Amino acid sequence: MEKWQVFDVSWGWIEKLKDDQREAKAEIAVLVITAFPKKVNNFAYINGIWVTNYTLAICLAVSLRMNLIQVASAPATFASAYPKSTCASPTR
């Protein structure tokens, strides 16, 4: 239990995960914990890191994955909806 008390005080786990996220060039990082910081119940977005409990970890992962898929497919959707010829400036 002591390590989670340190988490509340220093946010060391958040910073460690942010470093790992940068090194891995990951878009999203999730920290699954058993003891939450004050004022957090089930999950939160803290300093660029998702923090959740074991019960909601899979639900959060599925939601984040669906969001990544939508974002990744957005440029293709935009390109097909607005072909280059319609976006180009008119010729004189």
Task: Describe what you observe in this structure.
By secondary structure, the chain is mainly alpha-helical. It has one domain. It has a three-stranded mixed beta sheet.
Strand arrangement, largest sheet? 1-3-2
Low-pLDDT segments: 1-7
Level of helix content? 55-70%
Average pLDDT taken over every residue: 78
Record field, number of beta strands: 3
Oligomerization: single chain
Largest sheet geometry: 3 strands, mixed
Total domain modules: 1
Give the amount of beta strand, in percent: 5-15%
Number of helices: 4
Termini separation (Å)? 73 Å
Which helices and strands occur, and which strands form pairs?
Elements lengths: L1 H9 L1 H13 L5 E3 L10 E4 L2 E4 L1 H28 L2 H4 L5
Parallel strand pairs: 1-3
Antiparallel strand pairs: 2-3
Features:
single chain, 92 residues, mainly alpha, three-stranded mixed sheet, 4 helices, 12% strand, disordered N terminus
Quick summary of this structure?
The chain is mainly alpha-helical and 92 residues long.
